[in-house]
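Reviewers asked in the last cycle whether our approach scales beyond single polypeptides. To address this, we selected a multi-component target totalling 1353 residues and predicted its structure end to end. The input consisted of the following lines:
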Amino acid sequence: MANTLDQIFVLLSRWIVSLLPVALQPLVGILLSVVAIIAVFPGLFALTTVLERKGLGRMQNRIGPNRTGPFGILQPVADGIKSLTKEDIIPTSADAVVHFIAPLVLVVAVFMGFAVLPMGRNMQLVDMDAGLLFFFAIGASTELSIFMAGWSSRNKYSLLGAMRAVAQMISYEVPLLMSTVAIVMITGSLSLVKIVEAQNQYTWGLPHWYIFTPWGFAGFVMFCIAATAETNRSPFDLPEGESELVAGYFTEYSGFKFALFFLGEYLGMFSISGLGTTLFLGGWSAPLQVLNFVPSWIWFFSKVMLSITVLIWIRGTLPRLRQDQLMNFAWKFVIPMTLLNLIVAAVWHFLGDGWLRWIVCSAILLGVYVIGGRVQMRGKKFGPRSYRYAE
Amino acid sequence: MTPLAGYLLVAALVFAVGLAGALTRRNAILVLIGIELMLNAANLNLVAFWRYSPHPELLTGMMFAVFSIAVAAAEAAVGLGLVISIYRHARTTDLDEMNRMKG
Amino acid sequence: MQESMAQSFHCLYDCYGPLVGNLVLIPAVPMVAAGVIALLKQPRRKTAAALAIGSLSFSLIYSLFAFAYVVSGWMHGLPVRETVNFSWLTFGDGSVDLGWILDPLSAVMLVMVTFVGLLIFIYSTGYMAHDENYTRFFCFLSLFAGAMLGVVIANSLLLLFMCWEIVGLTSYLLIGFWYQKPSAAAAAKKAFLTTRVGDIFFILGIVWLFAQTGTLLFYSQGAGTLEPTALAGLLSAPAGLGLSAATAIGLLIFAGAAGKSGQLPLHVWLPDAMEGPTPVSALIHAATMVAAGVYLIARVYPLISAGVQPGGTTTALTVVTWVGAATAVFAALIAVAQNDIKRILAYSTVSQLGYMMAGLGLGGVAIGMFHLITHAFFKALLFMGAGSVIHGSHEEQDVRRMGGLRNSMRITWLTYLAGMLALTGFPIFFSGFWSKDAILESAHHWSAGHGPYFLLVFGALLTAFYMTRQVSYVFFGEYRGDGHAHESPRVMTMPLAILAFFAIALGVVGTPAWPWFRSFLTDRPAWFDFGGFHEPGLLALMLTSTAIVFLGYAIGWALYGNKSPRAEEPDALEKAIPPVWTALSNRFYVDEFYGGTVIAFYYWWARVADWFDRRVWGGLVALVVWFFGMLARFDRFFDENWVNGGFDKGCEELSVGGGLLARVQNGRVQTYLRLLALAIVVLAAILIWSSRG
Amino acid sequence: MNVVFWILAVITVLGGLTAVTLKNTVHCALAVTTAFAGLALLFLQLDAQFAGFAQILVYIGAVAILVVFAILLTRGSETPAEGVFSRTWFAGLLIAAAVFAVLGWAVLHSVAALPNESAAPAVTVLQIGTALMGRYVLPLEIVALLLTAAMLGAVIVAMHEKGEQK
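The resulting structure, written as structure tokens, was:
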């Protein structure tokens, strides 16, 4: 029972495909999954916008949207309609073609990223042998679209925003990649499916998720930082820092294109947190052996949503960085630490099983982090912060 | 399936186009772009020959391509850095005006 | 347990427990610590000390584990000798292997070195507290500790030699630690060079050994140099002068050991080494490094004693014995007439090392090593006590300007007394008694004559004498220094107390009744029975040595006891027998002798070489210069009149041609690129064309 | 003759052509990016997944961005007054054509000798990794060194005037 429930989507698609003539079957099979992805994630996107706006509202001591529908549930629908019906403005001096292409490229690229994410047992569009590489290759091409958007709309805010975004994304792509390489080293495969399966084992009912190893944990922290920067979310949201440059690279966008950008942003968020889940949090594997009866896809999506919530929480909590701080942080702290992580992972691998590797690896990491933190924080003063809540 | 010749012809064409770009454009950056195109054409040849070689499992050609991609990245970085610094000095990226080394 | 032991004992080439497999950590960790400390900034004193002490305590713990492992193996009747060997570099079909070893010898030595070392590290935090080069000091110290431990665990003569040299280096660095003192710098140089003399012989021995056996590993499953097959080969190989290769190599290695352990005639550097900070003297020049020579001999004992019949001896052993005995007495004599508290101890160290060597030569590894261990403890104790005294009486080193300190420095006094009694071999209660007694006993039983026996007994007498002299100078009478003495801080006295305890207690494991130590090193089971005392002549022997020691105390007390002579008035002994005194106080003129012979020769030779340079070579050079000068003149003449004309013409031609070529060189990248492409086209065309036909 | 190949080929070549002909430099950069993408897809066509993804990652992810940055930093996007083509563009074009002629001629001449399709090699990333760490470890190290040197060089070349400006 549990198994059928677990595999329900797979079985469903198989069944549908089996109805068709053989010639069409592979094509339709793929199409089905694509459609599923294209259907599911925008839905999630709608859900998330509400979540974010209400959550942020609570954090900032506001109510958040609560007019449309019960508790403002229908807010995204309203937004969607609004953005669709709005006039689509293209600045006269803008470079029309590029201005038009940019959002498409972004959305397409982001959607392609989902192709390799295993969202449940046997639930991935393709199990590519170089899945991780594919993911990053696709992710890299989003930068270009952002640049196109910024440059084409002939507006210094947009241009600045784009430049910032690109610089930031390039700088943080390195640690993002590095922090995952450790996992590739340990798993011995770039295929996300294999990586998840490697984590889907249990000792004493506890899972072998990589986050539960010293290097894995450190890598996860680094990954989160880099991912937040990669998706241009606060505290790394300089490219669209409202207070500095109106809305960054999509200042000049309106109507549906704007919606596309918005969608692209959130999809990027999903895909990156999906990747994080897959790499560190054991993908679709259950957190406890006893919970295995719950369908795998439920686990995957709940984990993704969890990490999204954390992202929202961070956005509600942390102040925005300055550009130089951003760069220094990337090149002087995150990247060295990810490099260190590689070494630690190697040590872990070569020390073989046993308690020794736990002690050694944790010792190295702790030592370096403490010292590094000291060096970074030298001469910086942190005073207490006082909040005042309205009753 | 496509014969090897097809790939080779495409590679040759891309190479020629790149060369033309490198030879005809004024802007140093575009010359660099042309050179990148030529490099890519070479890579395509490498990969194609690897694919059609009797022993593709030896990976030779593809490895070569991968390495040349890496080298090309380095080349682009340095080249563009040079262009920028030249621009700082001469306030131009026009190759016709960069003839200080004239004999 | 049993099986694992058995398995590990009959170990094949590279099967060993994790414990032995990682044994290299013991030296490695302090060395790494040294490296890290070297990178520290000077003000980071705490960090440096913490690093050094932490790393060494790690080594200590690890060594204790190793020791326990060996002991348990031995208790199960399965003597442990596990080696980890690996090939360091390979040439042709030969290869130089390195490796490390865990056996009773190295285990005991490991524990001793790490333990004493740790105490001395702790002590130094107090002693060097006011030195601004604190970090450098600890860097050197832990480097030394690492190298020394490397010497201990080495299973390859080459690895041992490497660490040996590092040890020598650190000793040099530490003796010259206060290099701003010219005397210290000189002493450091002297130590380095003198030990070099020994080391040259040593490496000769190593090379020879390698040439003979093709390996430098001590033990590797029957293929090692110390294992029967190799030894048999060495014995059979002649080396001229009626010596076998084994003997010759043994002697060469012994020369190296003599250099490190300050045996006659290479002892001159050791007393001067006292220019270094006192902890250094205690650690390097009393407890560990100088013992390295003894340890080396103990390690290669199978080689030196190759082909020995039970009860008999070999040439090498005889040499070792005689040198040792001679050194023992010689140094003791000199020690009688020294006034620098540390120098006295230094000479006493030399003589004790003599004892160890003699012990090795006479009674084998166990006896020599036992004295080494006990001596390490009480001599370290004495040195640190001396350091504490010096510290307490305002950097005063002259015993005549001290005195009466027994009241002002209680702990130091008591611990020092313990050390002194142990050194002189006060009966029953002190470790020194048992270890020295064992040596005397074996000397007494020695088949090849009684010479060493009498020498050593005389040495014992002298030891008792000069120690009494020193103690009564330093601690009795009334204080003659300036200011008034004060006790040293806790961090310095605490190690003293610990060491004192061991100086007393260690004797337990070496009594004839319970020769635990000896049986441990010789892989025999040990049991307790008083029958040990009933061996013929043993009790008599013990009584004799006791009598001798007390005689020494008596004379010493009679001459110096409780009276406090002024520094300027002549020494009591000098009043008694002036000529002897002058000879002794001038250390038998050994330094002067060397100065008169070796060094003078070098000076002379240098002068000759200098003259040769100036006159002969200088003249030649001048000649050549003149010749070329003439040549040049001729050339000039030739040039100006004939060459230039044609050359100018050529130049014009060239410049014209260059002008033409320069058209092409128009500084446009694309032009060059174009030419390049053209060339490619042409070449490719030619290629294809040729390939067609 | 399969369709995908031809589509990709056309995309690539067109991308290249537009890249070298367009007036606006940024457009050129974008066009050349499409050419890169086309080439990457051609690699995939040739079952060289790894090379293809590497191509995308490096060229589209890094080189294209670099080029764009360079263009913006050098104000290259403003089309110069005296035309985008150098004075001697005609010669250049001729030579390029000649080169293509020679190459094409060579290819067409050796069509008969060219090897035929062999079975698609099952090359896993694992094999590539082991090859990189085994047979190709020296080149790998050297390339790593080169990249480091290049990075440092580029940084220094591009910012050595910082001292004067600040």
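Chains C and A do not touch (no CB pair under 8 Å). We regard this as preliminary and will revisit it once experimental data from Aim 1 are available.
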